[in-house]
Amino acid sequence: MDRAATPRQRLIDAYASVVATPQTGIFALGTMSHAYLELDTRPGADARELVRRVAGLREPRTTIGGVNIVAGFRPELWARLTTDACPPRLKSFGEPLVGADGYTLPATQHDVVVWLAGAAYDVVFDLSRGVVSALASHAVLANEIVGWPYHRDLDLTGFVDGTENPTLVDATEATIVEAGSPGEGGSVLLLQQWEHDAEKWESLPIAEQEQVMGRQKLQGDELDPRPETSHVARTDQDQFGRIFRRNIGYGTLTRHGTIFVGFSRDRERLDAMLESMIARRGGSRDRLTDFAHAVTGAYYFVPSSEALAFFAAEPAS
After folding, report:
1. Which of 233, 227, 302 minimizes the C-alpha distance to 264?
2. Catalytic annotation present for 161
3. 88-133, pLDDT tens digit by residue?
4. Is residue 139 classed as helix, strand or coil in its secondary structure?
5. Helix, strand, or coil here: 48?
6. Which of 13, 84, 153, 161 is catalytic?
7. What CATH number does the domain containing 80 carry?
8. Distance between CA 24 and CA 257 in Å, rounded?
9. pTM of structure
10. What's the number of domains the chain is made of?
């Protein structure tokens, strides 16, 4: 049989002939309910068929109360199934990241992430059940996080979150792999669940909280001068490069915190921020890590809409 006629070769040829665009849900701001479903491939399951099924997931056909879907994959999984369609050197969060004083960011890498965001949790819940059901023969749900915005733009520390986010006009350059590069139209996602020590945090006077954050609590303005150990100083995007954050709150009264959802055109700038936070390469640890600790950590490659569409068009195996 002519190799050019195989589904994989058709995918390669088609992918090379179009302009790749990012998955639109990355930039769909204003959604009020979120679910992050992390899944692992079942033993013996065909990974290519799993990716095809993920690519075939569809959002509800409604203009009111709809749900956005963003899908990503463990970098090694996506790279194994595609040709020149994943950024080189992109790797999973394969092992814990340990700082100079032993402070550790855990690695909890999974094979697939499906992020659902909608106007209300009922529709997100229904679609979440549908996603898990559609993938059940090839993947098992390994982790589920449900999130919601806190007073629109605050995190559960009470501070404004995302003040350094680029505008939507600039976010594409910071977030999306450029045309002509491996993985064009895609993005690198760092997904972490950070649990807050609410009692310890709320025992601090507001002035001390501001020193930890490096910002004023009400206005959101950076302190001048900003403390070297502040969260603002240790994650300075002017130093490490721009990313696009879609952080959201999660949890119950007794256990809650922040879901860090960071998109970047490469992993290097995300790694640099994490290493700075835990003082892996010297200096002092981000003081915010005294009041919050990561309980999960994974990197995913979020391919372009076109790359997913080509997989979805393949015949079932």
Report:
1. 302
2. yes
3. 889 999 999 999 899 999 999 999 999 999 999 999 999 999 999 9
4. strand
5. helix
6. 161
7. 3.30.70.3420
8. 26
9. 0.94
10. 1
